[in-house]
Write a structure and sequence with these properties.
Helices cover about 70% and strands about 15% of the residues. It has 5 helices and 3 strands, in the order H-H-E-H-H-E-E-H.
Length: about 110
């Protein structure tokens, strides 16, 4: 599953926000913030880890989650590409509108 598909779920987006806000959280700390079973949260964490949105390290018996910078950067790069394409389209539209305005004002003189 890719990162965007993983983040289509409300609970997973909330988990990512929670981890981003706190830096690192154990799976137990994460599950305490939700009204669902720890195994259900574990499934969400598994999806987020497999999609490279979160990373996990083991410390004794604890599983500690943090943002996976490479996964986040990949999404950011894609979003910036989409924004740039949209901005270029809007720039072309603006030039066209300015051209029409100029032609209209030149025609009145």
């Amino acid at each position: 599953m890719n990162a965007f598909a993983a983040l289509a779920d409300d609970t997973r987006r909330e988990i990512v926000k929670l981890v981003a806000k706190n830096g690192e959280l154990t799976s137990t700390e994460i599950s305490l913030n939700f009204k669902m079973s720890p195994p259900a949260i574990s499934q969400h964490l598994k999806v987020l880890k497999e999609s490279k949105v979160l990373q996990m390290k083991k410390q004794s018996q604890k599983r500690i989650y943090s943002l996976n910078r490479s996964g986040i950067d990949e999404m950011e790069d894609w979003l910036l590409e989409i924004i740039n394409l949209s901005n270029k389209r809007l720039d072309r539209l603006e030039k066209y509108v300015l051209k029409l305005k100029k032609e209209k004002s030149d025609g009145r003189k």
